Amino acid sequence: MKRSARIIDPNLHWREPSPALGFLQQENTDFLVVGVIGQQGVGKSSLMSLLGGTNCRDKRFHFRPQGFETKEKGCHMTAGVEMFITSERMILLDTQPVLSTSLLDELCVNDRERGYVKMLFFMFWQRHVKIRRTGGGAPDLASGLSLHQVQSLQLVAWLMSVCHVILVLHDQAPDFNLVRLLTTAEMLKPTTTPPDGTDNVDFMPEVVFVINRSNRDLYQPANFIACEQIIAALMKYSKLKVRGHFGSWRKNLMLELPKDEHPFNIFMVPSANDRCRNPAYPSFELTIRTLRNLVLSGEKYGKLD
Fold first, then answer.
1. Is it the case that residue 21 has pLDDT exceeding 50?
2. What CA–CA distance (Å, rounded) separates 151 from 169?
3. pLDDT reading at 40 higher than 70
4. Domain residue spans of the chain
5. 3-state secondary structure the chain
6. Would you tell me how many other CB atoms lie within 10 Å of the CB of residue 76?
7. Are 4 and 82 a contacting pair, CB within 8 Å?
8. Less Cβ crowding at N or C end of the chain, within 10 Å?
9. Buried residues in 13-47 as b, exposed as e (16+ CB within 10 A)
């Protein structure tokens, strides 16, 4: 696959005919599906491109990142869901931002336009049929906000039903709203039927909390443990797989941390612009390479005990 293909439009509708049909077959299910969620501008497209094998110095990424002009306008880059298949048979799903003010603005504008057309229709109806208008008009911000929250929940719940690994991307620090969205979408997740047809078994994806652009303070053992405890407390009653081999990286990169047989799936990625060669802190290239190896070594099917 040379470039990414959009499989779901911004309204969360499947594109017909789907561009994925030329690459996927029902008889061939030996794929590892990796999705990502995060708010606007946290680096989702860049991270997924790097997981797909793109070098950070390359000018062409698999998923188009947010440009300088787009950042100045406060707009988002990815609309809907885009797919890219790597040579390692890994399906990467890059998604539009959740809880995004840019998407909310688009929804309000579209809602306002639909309300204006509806208002003209009622004016025409009132003039010719002589019926007093009792409602209608342009919806307010609340309707657009509710619609965007529902769309965010639908997107996350859909990823939980199709992905083996979900990367929850935070920017510099844990995002409470993002974790709350994740736990709420878990309640809406449809039951995923296992490949062998076993009943009463629900497969859950492995969730990895990735803190992008982590500063050096987060690599201090006390700060890392505090960050881990915060996310673990928020996910206390969740049945998602938040503990696994993704936490094994800290054995080699953070030797001062206490040993844990079931480490929490939290991963920190430093800024790509941080060129300090201090051996006490892992470099950006080493971190991305480690994360990619952990993703490729993950289980494709995991059963919730």
1. yes
2. 18
3. yes
4. 5-104+141-296
5. CCCCEEEECCCCCECCCCHHHHCCECCECCCEEEEEEECCCCCHHHHHHHHCCCCCCCCCCCCCCCCHHHHHHCCCCCCCEEEEECCCCEEEEEECCCCCHHHHHHHHHHHHHHHHHHHHHHHHHHHHHCCCCCCCCCCCHHHHHHHHHHHHHHHHHHHHHHCCEEEEEEECCCCHHHHHHHHHHHHHCCCCCCCCCCCCCCECCEEEEEEEEECHHHHCHHHHHHHHHHHHHHCCCCCCECECHHHHHHHHHCCCCCCCCCCECEEEEECCCCCCCCCCCCCHHHHHHHHHHHHHCCCCCCECC
6. 22
7. yes
8. C
9. eeeeeeebeeeeeeeeeebbbbbbbbbbbbbbbbb
Answer yes or no: are the C-beta atoms of 283 and 266 closer than 8 Å.
Answer: no
* Cα–Cα nearest to 271, from 203, 216, 193, 200: 216
Predicted local distance difference test score (pLDDT) of residue 181:
92
- Written as six digits, the tokens of 102 are 């840019």
Spatial strand order in the sheet of 32-38: 5-8, 81-85, 90-95, 32-38, 165-171, 206-214, 266-270
**Residue showing tokens 């992905």:** 163
**% pLDDT > 70, the chain:** 70
Of residues 101 and 292, the one with the higher pLDDT is 292
pTM of the predicted protein model: 0.81
Homologous superfamily of 5-104+141-296 in CATH? P-loop containing nucleotide triphosphate hydrolases (3.40.50.300)
State the pLDDT at residue 69.
Answer: 67
Label residue 273 left, alpha or beta by phi (over 0 means left) and psi (-120 to 50 means alpha). alpha
